[in-house]
Amino acid sequence: xLKIQNYSISKKLTWMNMLVSGVALLLACSGxxxxxLYSFRDALVRNVSIQAQIIGDNTVSALLFNDPHxxxxxxxxxxxxxxxxxxxxxxxxxxPFAGYWRDRPGDTQPVPAIPAGQTQTYWYRDGHLGLTxxxxxxxxxxxxxxxRSDLGAMNDRLRSYAVIIIVVFLASLVxxxxxxxxxxxxxxxxVMQLAQTVRIVSHEKNYSIRAATNPNRDEVSTxxxxxxxxxxxxxxxxxxxxxxxxxxxxxVRERTIQLAVANxxxxxxxxxxxxxxxMKSRFLASMSHELRTPLNAIVxxxxxxxxxTPGVLNVKQKRFVDHIKQGSxxxxxxxxxxxxxxxxxxxxxxxxxEEFLVKDALPEVLSTISPLAMAKNIRVEQxxxxxxxxxxxxxxxxxxxxxLLSNAVKFTPKGGLIGIECVDDGxxxxxxxxxxxxxxxxxxxxxxxxxxRQVEGTADSAHQGTGxxxxxxxxxxxxxxxxxxxxxxxxxxxxxxxxxxxxxxxxPYSLEEPTRAAVTMVSDRLxxxxxxxxxxxxxxxxxxxxxxxxxxVAMAESGTEALEEAQRLQPNxxxxxxxxxxxxxxxxxxxxxxxxxxxxxxxxxxxxxDQKQVGFALGAADYLIKPxxxxxxxxxxxxxxxxxxxxxxxxxxxxxxxxxxxxxEEALRSAGYETQGVCSGARALExxxxxxxxxxxxxxxxxxxxxxQVIRHVREEPALKELPILxxxxxxxxxxxxxxxxxxxxxxxxxxxxxxxxxxxELARVIRGHKLAKSAGSHD
Amino acid sequence: MKCADYKAALHGRxxxxxxxxxxxxxxxxxxxxxxxxxxxxxGQAKPGEYQVKAAYLYNFGRFVEWPSNITTASTGSFxxxxxxxxxFGPALDSTLTGETRGNQKVAARRIxxxxxYVDCQIxxxxxxxxxxxxxxIEALGNSAVLTVSDIPGFSQRxxxxxxxxxxxxxxFEVNLAATQRAGLTLSSELLKVATAVxxxxx
Lengths: 780, 202
Description:
The complex is a heterodimer of chains A (780) and B (202). Chain A is an alpha/beta fold and 780 residues long. Chain A has 19 helices and 22 strands. In chain A, strand 15, helix 12 (585-594) and strand 16 form a beta-alpha-beta unit. The two termini of chain A are 102 Å apart. Chain B has 202 residues and is α/β, with parallel strands linked by helices. Helix content of chain B is 43%, strand content 22%. Chain B has seven helices and ten strands. Chain B has helices at 3-41, 46-63, 68-71, 91-96, 133-140, 176-181, 188-193; strands spanning 64-65, 77-83, 100-101, 104-111, 122-125, 146-149, 161-166, 169-175, 185-186, 196-198. In chain B, the strands form two sheets. An eight-stranded mixed β-sheet of chain B has the order 3-4-2-5-6-7-8-10. In chain B, strand 5 (122-125), helix 5 and strand 6 form a beta-alpha-beta unit. Chain B is globular, with a radius of gyration of 20 Å. Classes of the chains: A alpha/beta (780), B alpha/beta (202). Chain A binds chain B through residues 58, 60-62, 64-67, 70, 92-95, 113, 116, 137-138, and chain B through 17-18, 21-22, 25-26, 29, 52, 55-56, 59, 62-63, 101, 169-172, 187, 189-190, 192-193.
C-alpha cells in the first residue's frame, strides 16, 4: 500500500492543494446549491402562489355567476407552464367547480383545507408541490383554488447544477493542479534540489558541492544556507582530517623508518648483548673452573692434613691448618655464591621442579646444620607437618633452608634455640626458621636481602659470611614462585619465612614412618648395614642422616634391643651411645662381645664423655666424642667396614690438574679404594685398553680430549659399555650437557667444598650398582 | 393532563374551527339543495330560480361602480329595489341579510312606481311590469340605477342586465350602452361571464 507519508514533497503539496481546493469547492458548491434549492423552492411556491392568485382573481365572476366554462378558460392559461399538472377551483361550498389537467382529465381532488387565518397553504408531497389558495373577492371568501405543480423545474435545476458543479470542480482541480505545479517551483523544487544535492554529497563524499541558493527569504532558503554552511564546515573538517591523515601517514612513515633504524640498532645491540652474555657465560664457566680447581686443592689438602691422613700434626699445625681450611672454605662458598647469583641474574638458573615432602628434604639439611648447632649448644626444634608436599627444585630448596638455618646458627648465641616450622595452607607451604638470635633492626630488615649487605656491627669473626646468602635465598624462593619475609625484634630473634607452591597429593604418599629398628635404606644386601644405638631420637636421626646413603641404617633405642637387633640383622658395624637409661653402653658392649654371633661386629662408641681407655679395653673398635662430625664418623666407619671397592679393580681418575689428581687419590685411598690417576683423556683410553678398572672418575674440562669425548669413546667400546663413570667437574653445565651426562654416566658431582664424602658415597653406590647388574647378568 | 386528554382536546378544537367555517355552509347548502330538489320534484322551479337571481342581484352590485355622488345616498345603505310584483318572496331578504357592499349595508325595498327609484342602486323590474317597461325606462332616464330584469328582450329595450335561462342555468346579457349612459362602470369580469354584451339598444 502506498502511504501518503512516503510521497515526495511535491506530490504531497499537490495532494494537499487538490484536497484543500477540492474540499473548499465542494463545500462552497454544496452550500450554494442548498441555498439555491431553498430559494428556488421558495420562488416556486411564490410563482405558483402568484399564478393561483391571478387565476383566482380571474375566476371570481365565473364563480359568482356560476360559469364554469369561463373558469375553465381562465384555467387553460396554465398551459403556459408545463410544470403545472393540475388545478381545481372549488365553490364557496367546497364543490368542484372547474378543473384543469395538463395531460388528461384525472381524479378530482377533494377541497384541501386551509388553516384558519391564512389565505393559502402549500406542501411538498410525492415529488409535487401542492398549493391551495382561497379565492377572496371584496374580502369575502368566494371559492378555493388548488394547484399542483411537479418539481421538474427543480430537478432540471439540480441536474444542471450537478453538471455545473462537476465541470467547475474538474476545472478547479485542473487549475489547482497547475497552481500547485507552479507553487512547487517555489517550495518543493528547492527542497528537492537540496535533497538531491545532499544525496550526491553523501554518495560521492564530495563536500565541495553546494546546494543552489534561493533568492527567497523563507525557511527553505534558510535551510539551504544552513546545509551549505554545514557542508562548508564538513569540507573544512574533512580537509583538516585529510591533512591530519596525511601528516599521520607521513609521521607513521617517518616513525617506521626510525623504528627500522632503531630496530637495526637494537638488533646490533642485541647481538652485542648476546655476545656479551655468551662471553659472560664463558667467563663464568671458566671462572668457576679456574677458581674452584685451585681452591679445591687447598680445601682438600687442608682437609686431609686436618684429618691427619699424612701424619699426625701438632696442635699449632692443626690450628693453622684449620685456619687455612676455614678461609678456603669461606672463599669457595663466596665464589659459589657469586656464581649462583650471576647465574640467577643472567637467567641461567636451571630449576628442576619435582614434587617432594618437606619432611623428606629436612634431614639432609639438618645433617649439615646439626653439627654446627651442636657446636654452639643450640637446640634445633622442628615442627613440620608430615604431609606438606611442595613442588620445587629439591636441591635449591635445601640450599634455601640451609642458608636460613646456617644464618640462624650464625646469629644465635650459645645455648639458643632454633625452630623450623612448616605450615600448609593448601595453596602454599610456608616454611619458617625462627631463632633467638640478636635480631635485626627494623630499618635494616629490608637490606638483609640485598647483595653484599650485612647488618652493621655484625661483621665480626663469629658472623662472617659472604653477604650473598640471603640475596640468593630470596631470588631462589622467588624464582620458584614463592615469597620470603622477615620478622624480627632487635635482641630477641628473627623469623624468616618463605613460601613454596603446595601440591595436593594425587596419590597418598607412603610416608615412611621410621619404625624402630627398621632398615630405612633400600634393602641392598651389598650396602653395608650400620646399627645405630642411641636412646635419643634426634641423635639417631642425625647419625642416620650422616650415614645414608652410603650405608643402610638400622636403629635401636636401648642396650637390650641393640643385642637382639645385632644378632638378628648381623650389621657390618654398630654405633653405640654410652649414656643410656637401663643398661649403659659399656654393658651392652660387653654383652655383644660375649655373644659369639655378634662378637666380631665392630662397635664404635659415641659418647659425650671421654673414656677411651674403658671403651677400648672393653673391645670397642673405635671411640668418638660427641658432638660427632659427619666426616669423622664416616671415616671411622669406613675404616672398620670393609669397603665395597676392596675386592675390586682400581678406580681410574682422569684429571688434567695434578693437584686434583693427588687429592682424589689420597681421599679415595683413605676410603679403601685403589686408584690410578691419569692427566689426559687420551691417556685414560690407553689405560682402559690394557687394564680392567672398577669405575672412572672423570673431569670434563681438559686440554686435548675433554671429558665428553672420553665418555663417547668409552661408550663406543662394547666391553666398557656398562663401566660406571662418575663425572666430577667445576664446570657450569648447560641443560643439554646435563641431559647427556645423565644418559651416559652414572653420577655427576660438582667440585665444591664438601665434595669428598659425597664422592665416596657416590662411588660406593655406582660400584655396587654395577656389581649387582653384573651378578644379575651372570646368573641369567 | 394525560396525553389522551390533550389529544382529545386538540381534536375537539379542530372540530370546532371546522364547524365554524364549513359545517354551517354545508348545512345551508344541503338545505338549499333539498329545497331545490323538493321544488323540482314538486314541479316548482321558481323559488330556486329566484333564490339564485337574488344572489345575482347582490353580486351585480359588486361588479359595478356607481358615480361617487350617488353611492352615498341619504339612506346610507345600498338598496336593491324590486319594482312590481315580487317574485323573490323571502329569498331576497334572506340573501341580503347581513351582506354589505363596502361599508354600506345592503337592503331590499319593494316599490310600486318608477318614481320611487331615487334611493335605489339596483332596480329589479318584475315581469309584471313588462307592459310598462318603456315608460319605466324612460322615467329612469339616465339616472345611475342598474336595471335588471328577466323580461325577455329587456337588454334590447334599453334595459341594462337581462337575466336569461340557459338550460337550467341562469345567465345574463348586458347592454353596455345603457350602463354607460347611466354613468355606471361595469367590471370586465362581469362582462366576461355575460352571455352577450350589447353596445346599444338595437
